[in-house]
Design goal:
- By secondary structure, the chain is α+β, with helices and mostly antiparallel strands.
- The chain has helices at 3-16, 21-28, 32-39, 47-57, 61-68, 89-101, 113-119, 130-153, 177-186, 191-195, 207-210, 227-241, 256-271, 290-295, 352-358, 428-431, and strands spanning 75-83, 106-110, 159-165, 200-204, 247-250, 277-286, 299-308, 316-324, 327-337, 342-350, 369-378, 381-387, 394-401, 416-419.
- Helix content is 36%, strand content 24%.
- The strands form two sheets. Strands 6-10-9-8-7-11-12-13 form an eight-stranded antiparallel barrel. Strands 2-3-1-4-5 form a five-stranded parallel beta sheet, with helices on both faces.
């Protein structure tokens, strides 16, 4: 049983016995927060605590043990660290390893495949064609990731962080679209599956973009790009990953050390250290020019169906189908609001069968939300524009932030009506009850 499923099992047992989290915490001599983490799937009780829960909930201990399936289930997170040439990835990997190792993680680093191949004689200029090189790179990348994934499953550590120095979609930046589609076909995969197979993507902006005095070829023998070429590659890599549900761009607005500190903060927030906070601002905007968006290389279209599940204790539970052209991935999300801007969010991927099973627990008081999302990376910021079929002259735009006071630079072609971050009518949960209507000019 997955952590979150076992958490739901404990939640239901507590509710059946009409007990509060505070009462259970007192009886087991733990904090309220510990009980909350068990029920949200963030952690599991020890054997001693399971024995006390067995007596408290009047269920056999064997039932609790059996429902866990794997009492020592490990948490494996797989992220990509990417970026333009001379962005600081090599140093960043050392920082990530040191920082998270000290916080109890086993950190596994998947080295950059292109550099491995090029420094050992396999390159675009030694292969017969660029396509042949990319095929070799994709094959080696996939084999390496599979080996690291399988090794992580067999480790004793309860928290494992796999960091890929670039991922499979980085290849897209170095190829023509037709070449990349051909590579995907050869591996019987698609762009959605490759992009969203990673839990999070963190992009370091190249020094070439706004700090060219620090751009150098000296620290990487596989790097050959001029400053202009490096800037173009940086944009192409950002465009390749745009559309991922957790994509963060770390710019050069500070000195290098602070840049890496911001990266660590973003990764820590994603991992839930100390808690998985989501800071989000939301705007009601005039209906955007869809043709303009779809022509932009740094904009990706995603279809989303979002269904809310029956829930108690103030926790919002929902499942999502997310993808395009018949290629979908599925997610379960649980959210708890901390403030108007900040929420604790826990998300995990589902199999299609798990998704279909959870649909049976849908809250029939709320309708399923269908929307088309345009993910836009621009000016080192990542916007999500949601188009709803119920609206013909307005839309919702969101941006996730690492700091509540961060400055937002809204693109000039996006015309805002008003900020609705603190307007509950525009939360997805409220919109699943009834779409708010606004008096806005028709398109």
């Amino acid at each position: 049983m997955k952590n979150i499923d076992f958490g739901n099992y404990l939640f239901n047992l507590r509710k059946e016995n009409n007990l509060t989290q505070r009462f259970v915490a007192y009886q087991l001599d733990v904090s309220d927060k510990a009980v909350s983490k068990w029920e949200m799937g963030k952690s599991k009780p020890t054997l001693d605590k399971l024995k006390l829960l067995s007596a408290l909930y009047n269920v056999p201990l064997n039932d609790l043990l059996a429902s866990q399936e794997n009492p020592n289930q490990i948490k494996i997170s797989k992220i990509v660290l990417t970026g333009g040439p001379c962005a600081g990835k090599t140093t960043a990997l050392t920082w990530i390893n040191n920082y998270f190792s000290k916080r109890g993680y086993t950190v596994l680093l998947v080295p950059e495949t292109a550099t491995e191949l090029i420094t050992n004689g396999v390159s675009p200029w030694t292969c017969q064609s660029r396509y042949d090189f990319q095929m070799s790179q994709m094959k080696l990348q996939k084999v390496k990731e599979q080996i690291f994934d399988e090794a992580a499953q067999k480790m004793k550590s309860d928290k494992i962080l796999i960091v890929c120095d670039r991922g499979t979609l980085d290849n897209k930046a170095y190829m023509k679209d037709v070449e990349f589609k051909r590579v995907l076909q050869e591996f019987n995969t698609n762009e959605v599956r490759e992009r969203d197979s990673y839990d999070a993507i963190f992009h370091l902006v190249s020094a070439a973009k706004d700090k060219p005095e620090f751009y150098t070829l000296a620290n990487n023998t596989a790097r050959t790009e001029t400053i202009d070429e490096a800037c173009q590659l940086d944009d192409k890599i950002i465009a390749a990953w745009t559309g991922h549900p957790h994509f963060r761009i770390i710019d050069n607005s500070t000195d290098f050390e602070e840049k890496l500190e911001r990266l660590l903060k973003e990764i820590a927030s994603f991992l839930g250290e100390p808690e998985p906070y989501e800071i989000e601002r939301k705007f009601l905007i005039y209906y955007p020019n869809i043709n303009q968006l779809e022509k932009m290389p740094n904009c990706t279209k995603v279809d989303i169906s979002q269904t809310y599940l029956k829930s108690q204790d103030g926790t919002e539970r929902r499942i999502r189908a997310r993808g395009i052209d018949g290629n979908y991935l599925y997610y379960l999300t649980e959210k708890r609001r901390i403030s108007n801007l900040k929420r604790v969010e826990i998300e995990r991927k589902l199999t299609q069968n798990e998704y279909l099973s959870l649909l049976m627990s849908a809250d029939n008081k709320l309708h399923t939300i269908h929307k088309t999302r345009y993910c836009l990376s621009i000016d080192n910021q990542y916007f999500e524009i949601d188009i709803y079929p119920e609206w013909s002259n307005q839309a919702i735009m969101e941006i996730e932030l690492s700091d509540e006071n961060a400055t937002i630079r809204i693109p000039e072609f996006i015309k805002t009506i008003k900020e609705v971050t603190e307007d509950s009518r525009y939360s997805n949960y409220q919109m699943a009850q009834e779409m708010p209507k606004e008096l806005v000019k028709k398109r």
